[in-house]
Amino acid sequence: MTIVDESGLAIQCSLWGGLAKAENYREGQVIAIKGARISDYAGKSLNAGEEHSQIYADPDHKRAHQLK
């Protein structure tokens, strides 16, 4: 998936294991990722796996409401 903030900055994020199957993520949805690992292979990217990461879809957080 590609994650983009309000400035237009984008980064690729790969989901692994159960995290890739757990949700039906949709374009424009606000997600929060805790514990993603940064990779620097052919450019920067994030990797989120169920053994080290948590994903929150549409979190009830002030910043998430601002992004929507």
Outline:
The chain has helices at residues 18-22, 62-67; strands spanning 2-4, 10-16, 31-34, 37-40, 44-49, 54-57. The protein has 68 residues and is α+β, with helices and mostly antiparallel strands.
Describe this structure in words.
The structure is a single chain. The two termini are 18 Å apart. With 68 residues, the protein is α+β, with helices and mostly antiparallel strands. The chain has helices spanning 18-22, 62-67; strands at residues 2-4, 10-16, 31-34, 37-40, 44-49, 54-57. Strand 4 (37-40) and strand 5 (44-49) form a beta hairpin. It has a single domain, classed as Nucleic acid-binding proteins (OB fold (Dihydrolipoamide Acetyltransferase, E2P), Beta Barrel). The longest helix is centred in the last third of the chain and has 6 residues, at 62-67. The chain contains two helices and six strands. It is 16% helix and 41% strand. The strands form two sheets. It has a four-stranded mixed sheet with strand order 1-2-5-4. Strands 3-6 form a two-stranded antiparallel ribbon.
